[in-house]
Amino acid sequence: xxxxxxxxxxxxxxxxxxxxxxxxxxxxxxxxxxxxxxxxxxxxxxxxxxxxxxxxxxxxxxxxxxxxxxxxxxxxxxxxxxxxxxxxxxxxxxxxxxxxxxxxxxxxxxxxxxxxxxxxxxxxxxxxxxxxxxxxxxxxxxxxxxxxxxxxxxxxxxxxxxxxxxxxxxxxxxxxxxxxxxxxxxxxxxxxxxxxxxxxxxxxxxxxxxxxxxxxxxxxxxxxxxxxxxxxxxxxxxxxxxxxxxxxxxxxxxxxxxxxxxxxxxxxxxxxxxxxxxxxxxxxxxxxxxxxxx
Length: 294
Fold this sequence. Notes:
four-stranded antiparallel beta sheet; 43% strand; mainly beta; nine-stranded antiparallel beta sheet; 294 residues
């Protein structure tokens, strides 16, 4: 039953949905297509994502990578049989059509936005050359009320094939990047921390455990805050390796890598973001991860 006074408000706004708590901005979900330049446009992503003191944590279509947009998920390789459906990662010959979006399970602790999306490409058409969907995506984004210096945001991404032979894969090189990919701002004092301590970016994916934290001076006052990415143990390939960057790119728990995998049944991908004040030592991420994984 929905509460008459939910802790987190999700309201329709121009181009999508605004999420707020107590009148303060939390995030914006972009439902409608937004055009960045003559070759790049996208829908179905989150930007801005705000810190607990109003600082913006994400970037949208920056000059170095116009295809990277806030909190997004995409793959270089999308196949139906032996036909390639453009390049969803690079925003080439690929679209996400958000067919429905509704607020669900709004209560005193959290609210969720459920979206139903179909994947389409000009390379997959029916009668009269009309594009037809080949994957249905059902995603739930659940936003929890802030508790002290922490806010949690859950993503449950369910991919359902609508045609035989659908496969998805990452970049076709030794990096293999693809999947859930937050494009966060990267301040000069960025610190990347995992369960075993500091994590160092490398060209190829690194093994860094089930969660990583990205902290630094995101706010105008130089106050340290951060964003942690938690990977649920139910994920295929768990613990997934990470593509990490200190300059001009996204952070990505890699799935499935360069070799595409078949969508023979619904594939469910679960991640949690932890937005927090202070650095990784200021919050007990091992405790928060244990609660999430349970």
